[in-house]
Amino acid sequence: MPYLSVNDKNIYYEMYGEGEPLVVLNGIMMSTASWQAFIEPFSKQYKLVLMDFVDQGKSEKVEEIYTQDLQAEVLKGLIDKLGFTKVHLLGISYGGEVALKFALKYQDKINSLILSNTTSYTNELLKDLGKAWIKAAKTYDGETFFRTVIPSVYSIEFYDNNIEWLRKREKLFIQLFTKEWYDAFVRLVISAESLNVTEQLHEINVPTLIIGSEYDSTTPLRLQEHIYKRIKDSKFVVIKGAGHASMYEKPYEFVSIVLGFLNTYRYSFNIV
């Protein structure tokens, strides 16, 4: 399995396809395995790079508390060790937050930036939501954790229409999630508590796309609007009828938006 030692941490990654590098950053409960359905469309034109953050998936688990700055530095180290001069960066939720941290420090390494269902600061509601998630995780009970966390991830329509699929995923939580996973999840949640880069966003000067979802209750549209208004010449697209997990609820729309931006952001359109 492909691992790299980055800043003394063993980081798991996968690569597919050829072309300009497209590095994808996971949401907080995701891993490289979460992207299996998206590998083919994203790797047809780009060298797709999937990675697990510290405390995610197959990457190294730690015991100390950290901030998202650690994840941004791990991302920097991975990009350097893979020999990439510049990359396209796609971050989902937690991954989008790390992407913002990375862009503010290393935007010379970014061709384009895509932020899906992302916030630039952890407000009081998100802090309390995080505390509830931590409390549920510390029960080490899959059913309790699932029914505390997952209802805030999906839209009402998706939840009601896919309840059998969700119940199967709940059983997987119970079977697969270990004490080590829950402890790592707690550290990931804590690492996002201090996020607040809103007033620095104007410093980002790379082609940027913000993707929001109509029914996202975890990071509502106004949080993406904060980012859109502060990053010069950024683009903003809303996926209708989706909640926070827009890539799962509306995969065709999600892929079309991402690839559409990557294939056109260099163009200037003069409509006459």
Automatic annotation (TrEMBL):
Positions in coiled-coil regions: none
Superkingdom assignment: Bacteria
Q: State a single Gene Ontology molecular function.
A: hydrolase activity
Which Pfam family is one of those matched by this entry?
A: Abhydrolase_1
What is the protein named? Answer: Alpha/beta hydrolase superfamily protein
Question: Which stretches make up the AB hydrolase-1 domain?
Answer: 21-251
Give the source lineage, highest ranks first.
Bacteria, Bacillati, Bacillota, Tissierellia, Tissierellales
Sorted keywords for this record are: Hydrolase
Q: Does the keyword Hydrolase apply?
A: yes
What InterPro entries does the database record attribute to this sequence?
A: AB_hydrolase_1 (IPR000073), AB_hydrolase_fold (IPR029058), AB_hydrolase_sf (IPR050266)
